[in-house]
What we know:
Layout lengths: L2 E7 L6 H14 L6 E5 L12 E5 L6 E8 L2 H4 L6 E7 L3 H15 L2 E3 L10 E3 H15 L3
Antiparallel strand pairs: 1-5, 2-3, 3-4, 4-5, 6-7
Helix pairs in contact: 1-3, 3-4
Amino acid sequence: MANSMFIPLLRLPQTLQEMRESIEEAFADLSCSRPSISRKKPSKDINNILEGFVQVEGSTLDEQCWITVSESSAEITEDEKCMYIASVTTRVDWVFAGIVSYALCRAYGAVVFNDACELDGQEKYSVKSLKEVLCDALNKKNYK
Length: 144
């Protein structure tokens, strides 16, 4: 069953291209191949991040996840400045989904809630701590 990592957002990406660039930069930062990023079920305005979802796919069938963004409350985000939350969901490769979560956190947020309890089981990461966990996982997996 799919589960998610959640990223409270201090601001929304203005366009799909901005989100794409943030994700590609994070993959490059971790020396990983850039994924394919596409918009699924968009509204008439393809840049409306609050509708539909964004599909992120790597080079194997296991490397895929999807991003949804919605309005939220400070009770959920745990931050009065964050009125939106992104959900990164996968059914297989949590390292891949972790990199996408890292990308969104480093560009738009400050923490990642690991409700899936995957990777190393921590419930919450800063940008720095998530990067460290991902680097360890990538080294063990020989992931590129």
